Every structure is written in C-alpha cells, then in structure tokens.
Amino acid sequence: MNDSPEAVRHRYDRIAPFFDFIESVMEILWFRRWRQRVWNLIEGERVLEVGVGTGKNLVFHPAGRSVTAVDFSERMLRRARRRAARLGTRTDFRLMDIQALTFADREFDTVVGTFVFCSVPDPVGGLEELRRVLKPGGKLVLLEHVRSEGEAAGRLMDLLDPWVSRLVGAHINRRTVENVETAGFRLEHVERLNALVRLIEARSPSLA
Question: In angstroms, rounded to a whole number, what is the distance separating the alpha carbons of residues 6 and 156?
Fold first, then answer.
C-alpha cells in the first residue's frame, strides 16, 4: 500500500467534507472532553498545533497566547479557517507537512497533536521534527489512538490496519508511546483513557 505523504494527503482531501460527520458520535461521547484536557496542559506563550484538521480544537485555543496550527491537507485546513472565522479565533494557519516543518529550531514552548500520529507516514521522523522546533525542555502533549496492549486484539488490529488506513488514512496499530521515546523525548506521563486511546505528556531534552 502506498503510504507516501501525497497518498495520505489525497485521502484526507477526499474525506474532508465528511470528516466531522464520520467522527460526530465519538466526538460527543469522548473526544471533546479529552481535547479540553489536552489544552489545559499547555505551557508557555508560543504553541504549535500539528494536524489541526477541520479545527475541532479551535474552541479550546487559549486567548492571549500565540497559537500556530498546521495541516498538510488544504481541504481540511480550509474548513478549519472557516471554523476559526465563526469562533473569532485568532490562530495562525499554515499549510505544512509535519515531517518537514519550515519553522526555526527551538521556536515553540508547547506542541499539541490530537489523533495525528496514526496518519503520519514516518511517525518517528515527524516526532523528531517536533523535538527540533520545541525549545529545550519544551512540552509535547498528544492524544493518540494506539495498538491494543492485548495480544489477540493487537493481532486483529494488525490484520485490519491496511483496510482501515486505505479508507480513512489512519493506522490503528501504531505504537506511539514507544515512538515518542524513540524520537528523543522524555516521557512524563501516559494515561490510558480507554482501550485504544492514550494521553501522552513528554519533554524535549534540556540543554546540558
């Protein structure tokens, strides 16, 4: 299966008009309150949201902070901009690939992502980019789908993953907690929100 950035971008461009509807039930039951928890954990003045999508987190963007939001799907970003206009949110939107951010090194105090690294073609490479743009000791907060810890359920997710990712662009068997450590972050807290979703807090390395 082609998992290039262009192929993933095409999938998200394709589902952008239906994306909010597809996730509407999960958003009402669980995701919305989890998103609010994520944004209560941010630190510092300069915040980067990666994979802003259609802008479901915009309602939680804090006033008085500089928030930049990126996505690599123009159609998703277009919907986020419209949502920001309705909410009156002053967010700086950028069309950008998480695997090749154009920001300077050590530019942000906190980086936030919600349900993003299930879709990044090179998840460790994308996380390394986040570490690059974070200030030393900067905070990473992620809300992510992960591979089940149960042996049988994990194997089932491995079997289903090619079909799910082909339909919606997201992989259901990513080991994102381990990937965060592999990318050079120091894990601070991992919370199991349900069988498949984790709230992850980590730090970029401090200067020696």
Answer: 27
Place of tokens 């589902």: 15
Question: What backbone torsions phi and psi does residue 94 show, to the nearest 5 degrees?
Answer: -135, 135
Q: Which residue has the higher pLDDT, 188 or 24?
A: 188
With the CA atoms of 130, 134, 138 and 110 taken in that order, what torsion angle do they form, in degrees rounded to the nearest 10?
Answer: -70
Which tens digit of pLDDT belongs to each residue from 8-41?
888 888 888 888 888 888 898 899 999 999 999 9
- 2/153 Cα distance (integer angstroms): 25
| pTM, rounded to two decimals | 0.92
Strand order in the sheet with 186-192: 92-95, 66-71, 46-50, 108-114, 134-145, 197-203, 186-192
Q: Is the dihedral of CA 134, 81, 61, 147 positive or negative?
A: negative
* CA pair distance 36, 24, nearest whole angstrom: 16
Q: Quick count: other Cβ atoms within 10 Å of Cβ 175?
A: 12
List C-alpha distances in Å: 21 to 73, 129, 153, 167, 204.
Answer: 18, 31, 27, 15, 35
**Rounded CA separation 34/206 (Å):** 28
Backbone angles phi, psi at 164, to 5 degrees: -65, -45
Return the SS3 of 79: helix
